[in-house]
């Protein structure tokens, strides 16, 4: 049984769209540009509540979605119905991906590949991605190296209003396991009604980070080639100061 790392359920799933509300985001154009360059069916892994998937479908892109969280997928389906969209969604873990189709583009936004915190499972996920690509297809995998992530204190991350009018306050703390390249992040969700704290819930997530040569070798190990590393959503090559970067790699034509 695989772990649902990140706990994209409970308050995390319920509040996701409070923090990510809208139709256009900093990464929206980027994936569209890359899908345009390699036309064909696309797959968003870790599609969540459809932040990107639903606007892409509205615009006529052929994109399907995979996520391991029932609650995130339920929310995606509900929003899709309101927009008269019928997305093809699969409830699967990327490390066990087993779909009836192959895709021209597979993308994993918001660095969700890092949620596969176990090294062997991450390798397994890459082999599944490769197997689900058409010849000449591309994967797009954003990653980051955590900065200042060894914090003892709790830092307020964001706050918002829930559907019942109560307030929600999210704080986080984090630690790193340097040579394992794993960050453990704990998020605390506090529900406040009036002036009373009525509930506190904690969620733990582990994120595995990678360095550029390491991840390049991992991709090569599974047969990927034409590997590019962008330093951001403007698609410019990564420079040495950047700790957020986006891998793009292709499956060879047969
Ligand atoms: C940060 S959210 C991103 C959601 C969406 N892609 C977006 O950009 O708004 C991460 C999503 O990845 C999903 N996820 C986490 N681990 C996963 C795994 N191993 N396989 C498939 N989905 C996973 C979570 O359930 C969650 O919906």
UniProtKB/TrEMBL annotation:
Residues 43-137 form the Methyltransferase domain. GO terms for biological process: methylation. This is Class I SAM-dependent methyltransferase. Coiled coil: none annotated. One of its GO terms (molecular function) is methyltransferase activity. It comes from Paenibacillus spongiae. It comes from the Bacteria. Keywords: Methyltransferase, Transferase. Pfam families: Methyltransf_25. The keyword Ribonucleoprotein does not apply. The keyword Methyltransferase applies. Transmembrane segments: none annotated.
């Amino acid at each position: 049984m695989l772990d649902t790392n990140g706990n994209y359920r409970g308050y995390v799933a319920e509040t996701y769209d409070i923090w990510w509300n809208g139709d256009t985001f900093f990464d929206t154009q980027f994936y569209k540009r890359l899908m345009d360059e390699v036309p064909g069916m696309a797959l968003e892994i870790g599609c969540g509540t459809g932040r990107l998937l639903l606007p892409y479908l509205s615009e006529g892109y052929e994109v399907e979605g995979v996520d391991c969280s029932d609650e995130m997928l339920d929310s995606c389906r509900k929003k899709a119905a309101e927009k008269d969209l019928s997305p093809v969604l699969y409830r699967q873990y990327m490390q066990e991906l087993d779909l009836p189709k192959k895709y021209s583009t597979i993308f994993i936004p918001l660095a969700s590949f890092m949620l596969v915190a176990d090294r062997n499972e991450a390798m397994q996920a890459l082999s599944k991605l490769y197997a689900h690509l058409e010849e000449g297809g591309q994967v797009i995998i954003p990653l980051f190296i955590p900065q200042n992530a060894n914090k003892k204190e709790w830092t307020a991350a964001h706050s918002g209003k829930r559907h019942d009018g109560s307030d929600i306050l999210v704080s986080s703390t984090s630690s790193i396991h340097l040579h394992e390249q794993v960050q453990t992040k704990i998020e605390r969700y506090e529900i406040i009604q009036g002036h009373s704290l009525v509930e506190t819930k904690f969620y733990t997530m582990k994120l595995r980070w990678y360095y550029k040569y390491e991840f390049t070798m991992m991709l090569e190990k599974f047969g990927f080639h034409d590997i590019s590393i962008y330093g951001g959503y403007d698609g410019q090559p990564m420079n040495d100061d950047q700790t957020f970067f986006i891998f793009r790699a292709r499956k060879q034509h047969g």
